[in-house]
Amino acid sequence: MLGLKYMENGREGKTQSRIKEEAKRSEAQPNTTQPNPTPPSFICSVGCEIALRQFHRHFEVMASKRILKELKDLQKDPPTSCSAGPVAEDMFHWQATIMGPTDSPYSGGVFLVTIHFPPDYPFKPPKVAFKTKVFHPNINSNGSICLDILKEQWSPALTISKALVDTLSLIPL
């Protein structure tokens, strides 16, 4: 972040590289004045906002790559009774289809599920919810699924395929 402007006590300050140069020069010269007990406070200005946007953009790019890899893996080796993919061209919004398991009250059912990936996926879990009305003790009236791996037990090692398989295994209850 060298070269970004900072604010020093309300005025435009020096760049980081210039501050470092002055610090080296002052180390070489004997200090004849009393040290300032409170160092000047540097308040981040526009440069920090740009850096923060770049940081978030970096996470989104990482998430996009991971989501694309998972999509390819799903297409190559889909889980039994499940399919999923992006809605239109939005890689962060998918729709999945889960077929009701045989030998269960849900046999023959086709259940639509929405999947929303956060910008910091896979570090945060995807939001997975049923669009199709399902009467099930682990699925609320809004379609939200009570499944630990979609909440506090999520790990970046998990995938959307694993989440779909676990959701499918939840249904026969």
3D structure, described in words:
The chain has 173 residues and is an alpha+beta fold. The protein has a domain at 79-170: Ubiquitin Conjugating Enzyme (Roll). It is built from three helices and seven strands. The strands form two sheets. Strands 4-5-6-7 form a four-stranded antiparallel sheet. A hairpin with a 2-residue loop joins β1 (6-8) and β2 (11-12). Residues 1-12 and 38-42 have low confidence and may be disordered.
Which key terms come to mind for this protein?
173 residues; alpha+beta; Ubiquitin Conjugating Enzyme; 32% helix; elongated
Q: What is the β-strand count?
A: 7
Radius of gyration: 26 Å
Q: Helical element count?
A: 3
Write down the CATH class of the domain at 79-170: Alpha Beta
Low-confidence stretches: 1-12, 38-42
Protein name: SUMO-conjugating enzyme UBC9
Region (Disordered): 1-40
GO molecular function: ATP binding; transferase activity
Active site: 146 (glycyl thioester intermediate)
